[in-house]
Amino acid sequence: MPAEVTDNRERSRFEMAFNDCSLAIIAYRREGKRIVLTHTEVPEALSGQGVGSRLIQGALRIIRAEGLRVVAQCSFVAAYIERHGEERDLLAGPG
């Protein structure tokens, strides 16, 4: 069972750790009130099990709580937000 999604600010990434010591991550860059989600990595052994979606859900929960806006540079994150309209309000406008 995975741990909660945490924000590792020192490494600029959201993390979800698993009992077997594997780690799923979303790398980011903070730009004022915006957070640019640049890359998502899920261990191959966990691929296709919904880990990426759970990771994004947790990251977006943290982002929402902090009052930030998302720039989804990562295509996996962008596709998730497109499929989940309730999250689109987090998207940053142009500029």
How would you sum up this structure, described in words?
The model has no long low-confidence stretch (mean pLDDT 93). The protein has a five-stranded mixed beta sheet with strand order 1-2-3-4-5. It is built from two helices and five strands. With 95 residues, it is an alpha+beta fold. The chain is globular and about 40 Å long. It has a single domain, classed as 3-Layer(aba) Sandwich (Aminopeptidase), CATH 3.40.630.30.
SSE order, as H and E? EEEEHEH
Number of H- or I-type helical stretches? 2
Q: How far from one another are the termini?
A: 39 Å
User: What do we call the CATH topology?
Assistant: Aminopeptidase
Instruction: Give the name of the CATH superfamily.
Output: Gcn5-related N-acetyltransferase (GNAT)
Strands, total number: 5
Helix content: 25-40%
Based on the coordinates given, report the CATH architecture: 3-Layer(aba) Sandwich
Largest sheet: 5 strands, mixed
- Radius of gyration equals 13 Å
Shape: globular
Mean pLDDT: 93
Q: Which CATH class? A: Alpha Beta
Low-confidence stretches: none
Briefly note the structural class of the backbone. Answer: alpha+beta
Number of domain modules: 1
Task: Provide the β-strand percentage band.
Answer: 25-35%
Strand order of the largest sheet: 1-2-3-4-5
Keywords:
95 residues, alpha+beta, Aminopeptidase, 5-stranded mixed sheet
How do you describe this structure in short?
With 95 residues, the chain is α+β, with helices and mostly antiparallel strands.
